Amino acid sequence: MSDPLYSFAPPGVPARPIHVVPEGETDTALASLSGPQRRWAEAQGFTGKLGSHVILPDPEGAPVAVLAGYGTAESRARQRFALAPLATALPAGDYAFHGLDDPAALAEQSLGWLLAGYGFTRYKGTPATPARLQLAPGLDAARLIACAAGEALTRDLINTPANDMGPEELEAAARSLASRFAADITVIRDQDLLAQNFPLIHTVGHASDRRPRLIDLRWGDAGPALTLVGKGVCFDTGGLNLKPGVSMALMKKDMGGAATVLGLAQMIMALGLRLRLRVLIPAVENSVAGGAFRPGDILPSRKGLTVEINNTDAEGRLVLADALALADEESPDLILSMATLTGAARVAVGPDLAPFYATRPEDAAALRAGAVRAADPVWEMPFHAPYEKMIEPGIADLDNAPSGGFAGSITAALFLRRFVEAPRYLHFDIYGWQPSAAPARPKGGAGQGARAVLEALPELLGL
């Protein structure tokens, strides 16, 4: 795995100022410079446009300060982490933001600087050495680093191709995390899944030579109980309803839910939050073989509900169902699942928003507010009760893939909710991928919703 690049300078060291200049306020900023620096900035055509910057030299030509364009309020609303590209664009050295008076904006841009230092170099290249940022007094450095490190773990897990990230390797990643934070971990594998009543996890994964398993991590012995459930389909061929090649190309990311809950768990444990954390990951590979489950099969579940299989490519909700049923048996204060579950969610909101479902409006409101503070956008979707009949095939209790193609994300969420009786359940239908590079977000694996959840936890759980 690649290491996150913690590009923060220790406090007290001399740091080159980055003067953050909104568009329209360049006259004031330029007036504060020496004559040669002002003329240099004017010659560069600096206007404060978002994303622009000018390195200011001393009389010997060495860089001593930076002007960074901060654009307009409208342009900033369209671009998260607008100053993050500076982390890799500036020459090596220590820097500090000046002129960012809004604490929330300062925290966002500082986090963006850290996130921009990520690089996945397991197979090619070497880690870059970004410029270092000196944190302004009052910022919570531990929280920023925990968020960046958790995101780096998520990105690494998703970016790793399936030949090196199967169920066994995902288990190893969870064990490594548990070891770092003195968490307990147990794993149920292969035939033991049947013996301990996880028939759906076993059925989805047993066609692969890479044996299915259920990973169960626990941490903390006081406070409210939070259970995270992440979809760990390490590769999805679609099973016998085989995906076309273009749809299979990104299926290494089908364990993005597992990667995201592990990243969130790392954030929680690194910050030492006072809660009882449980992480459940059904880890499987959905393969094509003689033992693969078939369209038309009717399968039992841990909860006792029967499921008619109308598409073997709707396997994620099956493995989650058994894990959610287990989570529900302890009646934790909050159950939260994350999964790269449906293409319908991407069609609805695109790759940048994390759609979520909530059984309580108060929890949804807390998440929306946390998402704004964390610069981690989410969008609430409805558990629309009139669609319940769409997941009831008549021949079995549930249908894993209702025909017609309507409301695919909602019907998947309703399916999962059938396995949770606890009153407080949140479900995220994430994409887990950045299709093109953006500030602080390189192309590739991406965590979605984790920082929003972390930010909302005090309100969600009374921490």
UniProtKB/TrEMBL annotation:
<feature type="domain" description="Cytosol aminopeptidase">
    <location>
        <begin position="311"/>
        <end position="318"/>
    </location>
</feature>
<dbReference type="InterPro" id="IPR000819">
    <property type="entry name" value="Peptidase_M17_C"/>
</dbReference>
<dbReference type="GO" id="GO:0030145">
    <property type="term" value="F:manganese ion binding"/>
</dbReference>
<dbReference type="InterPro" id="IPR048816">
    <property type="entry name" value="Peptidase_M17_N_1"/>
</dbReference>
<keyword id="KW-0378">Hydrolase</keyword>
<dbReference type="GO" id="GO:0005737">
    <property type="term" value="C:cytoplasm"/>
</dbReference>
<keyword id="KW-0464">Manganese</keyword>
<dbReference type="InterPro" id="IPR043472">
    <property type="entry name" value="Macro_dom-like"/>
</dbReference>
<dbReference type="GO" id="GO:0006508">
    <property type="term" value="P:proteolysis"/>
</dbReference>
<keyword id="KW-0645">Protease</keyword>
<dbReference type="Pfam" id="PF21337">
    <property type="entry name" value="Peptidase_M17_N_1"/>
</dbReference>
<protein>
    <submittedName>
        <fullName>Leucine aminopeptidase</fullName>
        <ecNumber>3.4.11.1</ecNumber>
    </submittedName>
</protein>
<comment type="similarity">
    <text>Belongs to the peptidase M17 family.</text>
</comment>
<keyword id="KW-0031">Aminopeptidase</keyword>
<dbReference type="GO" id="GO:0070006">
    <property type="term" value="F:metalloaminopeptidase activity"/>
</dbReference>
<dbReference type="Pfam" id="PF00883">
    <property type="entry name" value="Peptidase_M17"/>
</dbReference>
<dbReference type="InterPro" id="IPR011356">
    <property type="entry name" value="Leucine_aapep/pepB"/>
</dbReference>
